[in-house]
Amino acid sequence: MKRFLTLLAFILFTTATYSQTIMSFKAMGHNDDEPIFGMSGATSFYFKITPQYEINGSKLVIYFEPSQALIRDRSYINLFVGTKPVYSGRLTKDSIQKIIFPLSKADISADNYLKITVKTLLTITDDQCRDLDNPAMWLKIKNYSYLSLVKSSKNFFNNINISNCFDSKTAVVYGSNPTLHDLKAVAWAYSRLKKTQTKNIGVYEVDKLPDSVRNYIMVGTMATLPQDKKSLVKVTPQSNQGLLYLHKAVTTVTDTVTRMVDVRGRLTPVKSVSLESVPTEILFVTGGDDAGYEKTITALGNMNVLNSTFGDYLLVNKAQNTFFKTIDENRSKLSLKQIGGVSDFLSGIGSLKSAFNFKNSDFSFTPKEVEIRIVANYSSLNPGDRGFFNIYLNGLLLSSEKLDASGKLNTSVTINRYQHHKYNTLEAEFRFYPNNGNCKNSFTNFFAEVDVDKSYLESKNPFITSDLSFYQYPEAFNSGTTRIVVSKPYAKYAAGAMGEIIYELNNNINANNFPEFIYSDDIAKTPSELKKNNIIALLAKDDPLMNEFPDAPIKFNRNFRLYNTDNNTIVYSLADTTSNGLAQIFYGRSNNATLVLTATGKHLADAFLAASKSITEQLSTLSSNVCISDVNNNKYLFNINKSSDNLEYIDTKSALTRFWDNYNLYILLGILVLILLSFLYIRSKVQKSQELFND
């Protein structure tokens, strides 16, 4: 009996210490199957491995689907983990095939990234030269491929620290009656979490925190923290002193675990009850008083401080950031290296591509024209060889030129504002075809490399218009100082939206936009502040500050309707019962950038958040300055100016006019029916009279 109990205890302990977590490629951001094209193609995946996972004992499982046209026994797939080849094999006759590879610590880079590269060598015919551009040359990595990671609490206390704890956090928690300091802390914590590519970041009042959320950031001074949370902080900051403190604990909970079981090459979820050891992490952003708290918030906005704090707490005696930007900080010329580009050594035949991503907000201002300059080296062409260099932007071919025997490339193309978007993908493509007579012996002869230090993007002219649009957000706030203004009664509902705003203001290569926070009541006492600063205001619909924006496209504090100008139908009415977020962007009285958001309905926090997210998306228009979005992800964009005929204020009409607007169709229909009945009545009387006369 003792042996049985000992064995049972061992099993429970092992289950609590180690558990498998299945993370599909889709769950990690790869929503679609990843295709690999061409005779010799490749694709790479990068996954951040957070410290709570034990990589030893974990495994990688890749499912792939080859083209039905391939000669399977003469086509190959190769797997690289990091820079090391770990698997090579011929394709089999199965429609869906699988590779399983056990992982170890040696497979993870120093910054805890797992790089997976899949390379192919495919064959369709006996003639390799005919296979070069065959569209049937493809292989797809399925999005239900996955990492099976060992979640271990064995080294939990040693592995987790302030520098790496943000990767596992999923929420920000604040007090029920947040101060401006709390809102600022929430915004910067939210922004920091979003930089880790956390998809769904929760923002909760402390008394509404779900039990399922165990890893989060809590903000507030020591005096305002709930007593049960305050007792977890083992370091006490003094007056005028800030504190970042990471509380760590492991609890055993009974939970429902979903395992993915391989059924005929497809992953099928199977649920079971499991006793699991769950790490709990709370990062406290606090201080001995408001002055110390502000220092901690300042440190929270400094990535260098956060990334170099390898302990469980940090006392902040002094913190400094540049809280304003000047127009002198000109970022009109950016090298491809600055925007994150790396030098890829390309070799082979056919299409060889390097991709680079950039945003309009990487520049100091919205660019009107952008010069794309590419400097590269390549192997010289032999007589009879054919080589081309192509530049693509967002999938569209911009330029093409022939390669020659020099081996040097220095070319440029200038694009206008209609060709580039808020978020852009630039592709540099070398296409090489050897002389037909040497085709089979020339597959590795060609190589090329883009020089990311000498290649650059340069904004030639700023995009200046008489009216601001969301296309120019957030870079319209890059110059000068910015104030974030909030209605005091709506403050606790605006915290998540503020996080989105802070993230976007600093989502560029020179992230140092640190706006000040102020209540609408306070800034209304000094109207000059509304003129000398850029303003981002999150306001209640009836906030008196609304009257201080006479240049706003729409008066949100009045009932209005928006019409479709094509068919004169009502698109939106402010009286809608759905919770809506409303945003508008415009120039203030001193040509300062101004963004105003408000919310309606019962779900104010969700409405504010919906509006703040909608204006940062890749918009299809260059001129939208009003955005209305609801909590169901529906979004409407409008371009409203003083001469617009699709805007109507219904609160300026008399009761009789509003009655006529609402019921005019019914009234006209009733009149028409009365006329018809009168006609029929008179006709029947006339017929009777005629009959009597005839008799």
Automatic annotation (TrEMBL):
It comes from the Bacteria. Residues 1-19 form the signal peptide. The chain crosses the membrane at residues 663-682. Pfam families: BcsB. It is found in: Cell membrane. Keywords: Cell membrane, Membrane, Signal, Transmembrane, Transmembrane helix. It is a single-pass membrane protein. This is Cellulose biosynthesis cyclic di-GMP-binding regulatory protein BcsB.
